Amino acid sequence: MSATEVMTIGALAERTGLTTSAIRFYERKGIVTAARNAGGQRRFMRADIRRLSFALIAQEFGFTIKEIAEQLATLPPGRAPSKADWTRLSKQFQTHLNRRIARMERLRTQLEGCMGCGCLSLDKCELYNAGDAAASYGRGPRFIYGDKSFKKEPA
Questions:
Q1: Phi/psi at 67 (nearest 5 deg)?
Q2: For the whole model, what pTM was predicted?
Q3: Residues ≥6 apart with Cβ < 8 Å to 65
Q4: Model confidence over 22-37: pLDDT tens digits?
Q5: On the chain, which terminus has fewer CB atoms closer than 10 Å, C or N?
Q6: pLDDT tens digits for range 111-126
Q7: What is the Cα gyration radius of the chain?
Q8: What sign has the CA pseudo-torsion 91, 93, 99, 100?
């Protein structure tokens, strides 16, 4: 890396609006990787501005640090990602975003129709989970997430 391609942690903090401790956190989580100069000081690539910006945006959309690190791990290490690299990452990220958007739209529809209705009709309620039947699907409100409920069909 040439001197024009690298920046100190302080310069990176100034450019991203993050604190230096936050940048070190992201470094520990694999979002960015620092090189060390002869004095042991961290040096970051200018491309790390984009990596950190991507991480901040992804977090706003509810992605975990682990998920973000997994996505960024698909970019080439040791060099600035090319337009093709970012395009590939963008397509992968869009797939995840589309799934989340569909899930949120389902939730919005069900919350408007179910939680606000006050009917307490257990035969129709997506939140009702007789005998914890949804446990086999995993944690959380599985029927709201779109898993098929085990509701009794009308006789």
A1: -60, -40
A2: 0.66
A3: 26, 29, 31, 55, 59
A4: 999 999 999 999 999 8
A5: C
A6: 766 555 555 555 556 5
A7: 22
A8: negative
